[in-house]
Every structure is written in C-alpha cells, then in structure tokens.
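From the pipeline queue, job 12 of 40. The input is one protein chain; the requested action is below.

Action: predict structure.
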Amino acid sequence: MMLFHGPRKCRAGVLLFSLLILTTFIMLVCKNKGRPISPSDPMLKWNSFQSSVQFHPTVEFVNETDIIWQIPDAPKAVLFLAHGCNGRAANFWDRSPGCPSCVGLPEERLIVLQALSRKLAVLTVSSEGRCWTFDDEQTKVKWIIQWWVKKHELKELPIVAIGASSGGHFVSSLAAELNFSSIVVMIAEGVYDSMGIPTSYPPTLFVHMPKDRMRKLQIKQNMRALKENGVDVAEIRCMEFPLTPNFLSDRIPGLDETFSVKLFELFREKGFINENGYMRSDGRRTRWKDALKEREPAIEKYEWADHVQEEMNLAFSYHEMTSLQMEDILRWFESHMS
C-alpha cells in the first residue's frame, strides 16, 4: 500500500507547494502594481501625521497664478500636483496664518502630508479657469515648475506629478514636454489620442475607479498605446467601500465623532446608504445637505460641508480625488527615481 500511495501523496504535496508559490507570486505582483482598496484596509485618519509632519506652506503669486509649496528637510524629489475642475492650489493645504484662504479638503491634504512625510517637496498651482487648458497655460506651468526648482536649488532631484480629472489630462500632456521621472494620471484617461507619445515619455500609473466604465475602457486603450511605445505602465483600481459611523470624523478635521454618527444615522434614515453602508449615489447627486438643514438650519456655519461631500464621492468611487492609494503611488514614484 505504501508503494502505491506514496507517489500520489508526493505529487499532491508538490502540487500544493506549487500553488502556494504561485499564489505568493501573484500577491507580490499585485502589491507592486497597486491593488483595489477594500473595506477592511486601514484608512489614515486626518491627524495621522500630526506628530511627524506639519503644514508650513508658502503662498506666492507667480506668472499670474497662485502657487503654494512646502519643502521638507533633505528632500529627495519634487511633486507637482494638479487639481481637478473647480479646484485650486488652496485645496491641498490646511488654513493657517500663512495661508488664510487655504481649504484643506480631506483627500488633497492627506496626499500632501504623505508626500511630505516621505521627503517630497510639494508644489501646487491653481489653473487659470475652472479647468486646465493646454498650449499657453501648459507653457506657463512648465515655466513655473522649472523656475521654482531652480530657485530652490532642487534641479538635481527627480520631478514627479499627480493630476486628477482635468489635472490628469493636463499632466498627461505636460509630461511630453517636461522631464518627469514618473507620473500619476488619476480618474482621467489622459489626452493620448490627440498627442504624439515621445520615446522619452515617463512611466505612467493610472489610478482610476472602474465603476466609470467608459473611462476604464479608454484607460485600457491608452495603456496599450503607451506600452506599444515602450512606456512602463501600471494601474490601480479604486473600489467602493461602505461608510461607518465614525468614518467622516476620522477623515475630516473639525468634524467630531458625535456629529459623524449623527450624519451616518441621517444617511441611513434617508436611504442615502444601503443596509450594508454603501452609498446609493455619490455626494453630488445626494441631497444630504437639504436633509441635514431640516435638523440643523445653520448648516452654513459648518466649514466641512464640502469635505463631507468629497468623502461621500470617494466611498461611492465613481469620480473623486483619492489619497487611499498614496502608499502605492509613492512606491511607484520611488521605484522610478534611480
């Protein structure tokens, strides 16, 4: 009996070991290429970096636009950030005496804090109009970046970029003219169908929300086109996740846990979330402000109203700037800095 069953047991053991190795390999590849956020993943709180990184931005008016920046001690790279439509540089920084007009939207501010914690100098620029345009504005921003890195003696450092939505289109075009070491095109497919892709085009990471099916297909096509031109390309897919009673207070400065729980109960009562906590629609289409105003007539006094909507958009995961994958993004940047 032992002579008969021994080889089968051996083959089964080899097969099991091979499957284990293959599974481990796949997990490593997925980790390196980015992965979907799941509801079980730990999310940073708004004050996660309070003991290690502080906002000390400098505000300037350069070349007819606002720029806001901060340089950490011993920076190892420069990060240019391009906001989406209706955004501005002030969204990335908390309000302070040095920046009284700053807004500190929850996702934008966490992107900056994580970048500063990894020793990236951060430069944000406001678009001229509601959304980014090309040609003259692209030339202007290219000049600003080059002037700024020269002024602060950062020319020897790698330059990376993140652009979201309209900013993603802008960065995808700017990357054909500026020597970025790598870029991130977030919730945007880029403008590759209307531009020639130079051989020197930087490694490109798409961070997108596949619930937006049309954009997902366009990103797939553009990834293929970039690969055919020899560009290193990867993607991160950001998935929806459920709200919890303390989610908003964890992510938004100035919103306490008691009010966060109250908002969660309101969303559940009004049917804005389902029985599992998932958003039925994004914040733009949810009349949560009207519902809250019935109970809190002075809602205008709360500075975090737009912050709540951004986090609702994020949970729905159709089209919103996200900091949830910033660790993967930073690894992408660091892997292309040598």
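Job complete. The first strand starts at residue 58 and ends at 62.
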